[in-house]
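Need tokens for this chain, all 482 residues.
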Amino acid sequence: MPETALQLAARVGRGQLGPAEPAAQSLARIRASDDRLHAFLSLREDAPERASRLGRSAFLGLPLAGVPVAIKDNLNLVGTVTSCGSRMLANYRSPYTATVVERLERAGAVVVGKTNLDEFAMGSSTENSAFGATRNPWDLGRVPGGSSGGSAAAVAGGQVPLALGSDTGGSVRLPAAFCGVLGFKPTYGRLSRYGLVAFASSLDQVGVLARSSADLAAALDVMCGIDPLDSTSIDHPPSFTAALDLGISGLRVGWIRQALRGNHPAVERAMATVQQVLEAGGARFGEADLPTLEAAVPAYYLIADSEASSNLARYDGMLYGLRSGGSDYSAVMAESRAEGFGQEVKRRVLMGTYALSSGYYDAYYSKAMRVRRLIARDFAAAFGAYDLLLCPTAAEPAFPIGERSADPLAMYRTDVYTVGISLAGLPALSLPAGYAQVDGKQLPVGIQLIAPALRDELILAVSQHFERVTEGRFFGIAPGFA
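Here are the structure tokens for all 482 residues:
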């Protein structure tokens, strides 16, 4: 089975592996399996050569020395295409590198490629990419979740030990649950958004996918911290690695009452497993009431789509990106957008533009913002009684490719347990905690751990405890890809 990120870094540090070898091995695995998964949109074929040119001494003492990393294709990496899964940016080459990617590279990580996503990160299944759908490593006929489905599939398929995604309303957590890996969305502002192509700026956050809690903590340690290029970034992060050993004795944990019914039986079994493990470690359980969560999905889609309408206005066929013919500015813009944007992006831009238009702003966008404040208030009240909140990441395992493509509302309801957390700006982790048997296939399910803002490290402590007690039996690579 492919090694974890820290195992690889330790071997490079001891001189048992050359700094270029992990990247070369990762690229070989990608070439051998990506015709089945389609997790990657592009490979950095010269990644081993880049690492080799730096020399062994350049990697000495670095926490992620030689670790191959994949990044979602809405994060800029200088000299590479950043397509956002869209024809609009199919030939756009990044003139700079995102801060989080730059920090990973300074810590010794080697970027081996860029992963597939729903176009402009708008989707829950990675079926909306202009370059084809990504498949779930556990069942190639099912979706990997979205929009960071390529990153989740790459980690679950053993192609890389670590990947970056972005999470606006669940786009790291949902793929993590469907693919059986850890998916962490930090507190809003904990990771710099500089170099992340904007979808909904008040919600977008870079996230991390990994197969071990220690790998996740190591990546967060090197990426967190204030960035002068992102005014929303937060200074003085905790040490996530040190937090892994905090323990959970006396922890007050609340199940979110609104998420306890209507779940797949395998999800309910996973919930019971998590509670059993945490109670045995000294945690105390109860139920937390968050009544406004019932309005989270409509509020989220109004706010996110309104911000998308504003952010995507820059794609007008003029400065960069796709430019189609036309006799004047209006014709060029209309034809470029008609050709460059996919159906889901057009749907969301139209909904957002409508919600912001004169006469409808107060009825839709303004009301959704009031609901957002009420959701944040309910979470704050719940954290007065509990240190940590839990709920499923999704109500069911991964669904078949194509099942919800023609029904946008059914697709949006997939996010029912994730979007409220994003609206409140809270940190959350999808923890692989069980399996479902569906049509003869074993499919992973995830449970979501939610902490108060700026208490991200608490989640990592709980994840590490669960991983240790269960001996990592839910943390691994999909059968057939190990």
